[in-house]
Amino acid sequence: MTDNTTAIRVIGFPSLYVQGPGALGQLPAYLERLLPGCRAAAVVDPVVFGLFEALSVRMPGRLTPIPFGGECTLVEIDRLVATARQNEADVIIGAGGGKAVDSAKAVAQALDLPIAIVPTIASSDAPTSRLIAIYDENHKIVDVPLLRRNPDIVLVDTDVLIKAPRRFFVAGIGDAITKKFEVEEAAASGYPNYFQGQSTACSLQHAQACLDTSLRDSAAALDAVAAGKISPAFERVVEATVLYSGLAFEGGGLSVAHGMLRGLTAYPQTLGTLHGELVAYGLLVQLQATAQPEATVASIAGFLRRVGLPVRLADIGLAGIDVADMRRIAELTMTAPYVAARRPALNADILLRAMERVETAAA
C-alpha cells in the first residue's frame, strides 16, 4: 500500500444537482439562472425527443432540440457542433443515455460552452463526470477527453426515469456497486484519480454509500419500477447510481472491474451488453483476483443474481470461449494503467485464474 498521507487530495462536483419528479419542468428556470437570456441547443435521444419539443414551447426561439444519431463518434460530434453553432447556442444540453450525454459534452467542449445534463435512464454514472467516451464506427473507444470542469447542471427527473426499461435501471446498479471495491483499491495503490490527485475520504464514503444503498434498497426500488410508481427507495437508488457513483469513481479511481472493459469489449459478442452489466461481471473477477473473503464474494454474486446482473461469461455473450480467449481478455485488462498500478501487483495469470473461479462458482 502506498503511503499517501501527505499527498494532494482532489475531488470535483457538478455545480448543481437536481433530482425529483417533475424536475424537467424546472429546466428553463435553472438555465436562466445559469445564463440569463441564453439560447440552448439540446442533444436529445429520439426516445424522449417529444419531451424537449414540448419544453421548447416554453422557451420560444431559445431551445432547439437536435436528434442524437445514436453513437458518440467524431463524425456525429462534428454534425452536432455544426448544428449548435448554426443555432447560435450559448448553452448545450445533453438528454438521454450515456452516449447522448457524452456527445453533448463533446459539443460543449468544442464550443467552450456551459452544459446541462438531463439523464433519461439511470444506467450509469456518466451524467456528473467530466469524462467523454468517444468511439469509432466499430464501437472501439478512440479517445476519452475531459471537460474543463464538471457539468454546470445535472437535472434528474425521476418521473422520466421510472418509465425507462428495467434493464437500464439494473445496469446502473451494476455500475454503482463496483465502486466500493474499486475506489478502495485505487486509493490504496496511490494511483492518481481523474483530477490527477489522490482520493479524498469523501470519495470513499460515496463509494460505500453506493454499496449500502444498492444492497438495502434495490429490491424495493425494482418493485417501484415494476409498478411504475416512484418510491423513496427508487429515489435513493437513483441518487446512488447517478450521483454517488459518479463522485466516487471520478474522485476516487477505478480498478479491475472497469479495467476489464478493455478485454471484454474486444469481442463483438459483448456489443449488446450494457456498461453496468459488463462491470458487474468484472467485479466478480476483481473479488476473486484480490482474494476477498469467500463470504463477500458469495454475497455479491448472490445479489447480482437476484437483481438480474451477470455472474458468468455466458451472461455477457461470451458462452463457449476458450482459455486462449480468456487469457487475451486478462492481458487486455492489464493494459488499463490503474490496473497495472494496483498494489499488491496483479498480472494476466492471476486474472485468468480469477475468471476460471468465477465460472466454476456460477456453474
What does this structure look like?
This protein is of the alpha/beta class. It folds into 2 domains: about 15-160, Rossmann fold, CATH 3.40.50; about 165-360, Dehydroquinate synthase-like, alpha domain (Up-down Bundle), CATH 1.20.1090.10. It contains 16 helices and 8 strands. The strands form 2 sheets. A 6-stranded parallel beta sheet has the order 1-8-5-4-2-3, with helices on both faces. Strands 6-7 form a two-stranded antiparallel ribbon. The mean pLDDT is about 95.
How would you describe this structure in keywords?
single chain; 363 residues; alpha/beta; Rossmann fold; Dehydroquinate synthase-like, alpha domain; six-stranded parallel β-sheet; two-stranded antiparallel ribbon; 8 strands
> Widest sheet: strand order?
1-8-5-4-2-3
- Give the helices and strands as they follow along the chain: EHEHEHEHEEEEHHHHHHHHHHHH
Distance between the amino and carboxyl termini: 34 Å
At the first level of CATH, what is the class of the largest domain? Mainly Alpha
Largest sheet: 6 strands, parallel
- CATH homologous superfamily heading of the largest domain: Dehydroquinate synthase-like - alpha domain
Query: Unreliable stretches, pLDDT < 50, 5 or more residues?
Result: none
Oligomer: single chain
Structural domain count? 2
CATH architectural label of the largest domain: Up-down Bundle
